[in-house]
Amino acid sequence: MSDEQELHPRFDVDALSKTVRTSITSTRPPEGFNPLTASQEDLKKFGFPVRPDRELQPTEYAFWQRMFAQSLAFEAFDFEILPPVVRQIRGFFWGSPQRQTSLNWSGAYITPRDGTVFSSIWTRFQVPTPNLPPGARPGEKDLSSTWIGFDGQRRYYMSTLPQFGTAQNIEPNMGIPTRSFFAWWQWWVRGLVNQAFPIKLTAPTIHAGDLIMCYMQVAPNRTGVSFVITNLTTGRVVQFFQNAPSAGGGLPFKVSGATAEWVMERPAIPPDPNPMPLPDYGTVDFRDCGATAINLKTGATVERSLSGAKLIDMYVVRQNPERTVKISIPKRLDTREFLTEFR
Questions:
Q1: What is the b/e burial string over 239-265, where b = at least 16 CB atoms within 10 angstroms of the residue's CB?
Q2: What distance in Å separates the CA atoms of residue 211 and residue 235, rounded to the nearest whole number?
Q3: I need a labelling partner for 85 at 20 to 30 A (CA). Which of 6, 27, 146, 162 fits?
Q4: Chain mean position to CA 210
């Protein structure tokens, strides 16, 4: 048991694993299965998202086509519960209307318009190589994650944060700083201890430099999300659908779709709410960024780009003298692409 898990000695990780597994729909497709031509019923049966409409969502459909265009191997879904992380400090942003700051986030987010809510989000990025940052202390952990998600920016009633991406960490192993990489997801819920645990996907395997495509789609009733991660470098795919968690066995939470975000993050490990040191990850180029929003009354959809996106700088507070220093900043490249850069 890790030190972090010992912080929650009364929490039953086995019970959590069982709860997560019962909330998941994912079956490894048969050989020759093609998501580009499969029926919507078969896609749902195996845990895939609904295939976007070529006419109504042309950009999202093009991303779907690219995600499954090459010869791919579909891997079986499995997972491992990781030690808990603290995410409640996310969303405390200050700054100008178009550029804001955060202790733990660096990236971009958009908000819906004209009575719509977000129903899907996607991106493509290359897994960065983490290095020890300047001034790193012996034995310290330097943690980072690259992800997409819904509803993480604002605080509101029944707020949740489904998120999905990769982790790039440096942790001591026998006193030697060692890199690790993996895919993960989490359906974070404010105030629920059992939702503080990120979940590692055992497949696909992730390496530095791999080209990754991530895609999330909200169910029509807003109480579930479909996830797909494709490692274009290795040709491996994992897909699954998860029903939303519930509070105390009651009704499940719903995805509000109030924000869509693309983020480089440094998490915190409880009980300390302060984020862990951020490794020098170089740059991460978020490409093909997009989201679809839907009017829940009419069913009409509209595709959104990074146009009008708010950018988030990550900062730390240094001492002697006390000052604020930005350590990761985003830079907009066009309406579909931006990068974050370690400083």
A1: bbbbbbbeeeeeeebbbbbbbbbbbbb
A2: 10
A3: 27
A4: 16
Question: Using 50, 70 and 90 to split pLDDT, how confident is the model at 3?
Answer: very low
Q: Are 212 and 206 in contact (CB under 8 A)?
A: yes
Q: Which pair of tokens denotes residue 6?
A: 């010992």
Statement: residue 9 has pLDDT above 50: no
Phi and psi for 14 in degrees, rounded to 5?
Answer: -65, -40
Would you state the structure tokens that stand for residue 50, as one six-digit string?
Answer: 């609904």
How far is the CA of 263 from the CAs of 33, 110, 149, 198, 266, in angstroms? 32, 12, 8, 16, 10
Q: What is the pLDDT of residue 339?
A: 98
Answer for the pair 199, 82: CB distance below 8 angstroms, yes or no.
yes
The answer to whether the beta carbons of residues 308 and 336 sit under 8 Å apart is no
Give pTM, 2 decimals.
0.93
Distance CA 194, CA 188 (A): 9
Most confident of 80-84, 93-97, 333-337: 333-337
- Nearest in space to 243 (alpha carbons), one of 230, 253, 256, 233: 253
Burial of residue 97, with CB atoms counted within 10 A of its CB: 0-12 exposed, 13-18 middle, 19 or more buried: exposed
- Say whether the peptide bond before residue 204 is cis (omega within 30 degrees of 0): yes
- Helix (H), strand (E) counts: the chain: 4, 20
Amino acid 190: pLDDT: 74
One-letter amino acid identity for 125?
F
What are the start-end ranges of the E strands in the chain?
A: 24-25, 73-74, 79-81, 94-95, 99-102, 105-110, 117-126, 145-150, 160-173, 176-189, 199-201, 211-218, 224-231, 236-243, 260-265, 283-294, 301-304, 310-318, 323-334, 337-342
| 145-173 pLDDT per residue, tens | 999 999 976 665 567 899 999 999 999 99
How many CA atoms within 13 Å lie on the side-chain side of 299?
Answer: 4
State the burial class of residue 57 (Cβ atoms within 10 Å of its Cβ: 0-12, 13-18, 19+).
buried
Question: Where do we find the tokens 């090459």?
Answer: 70
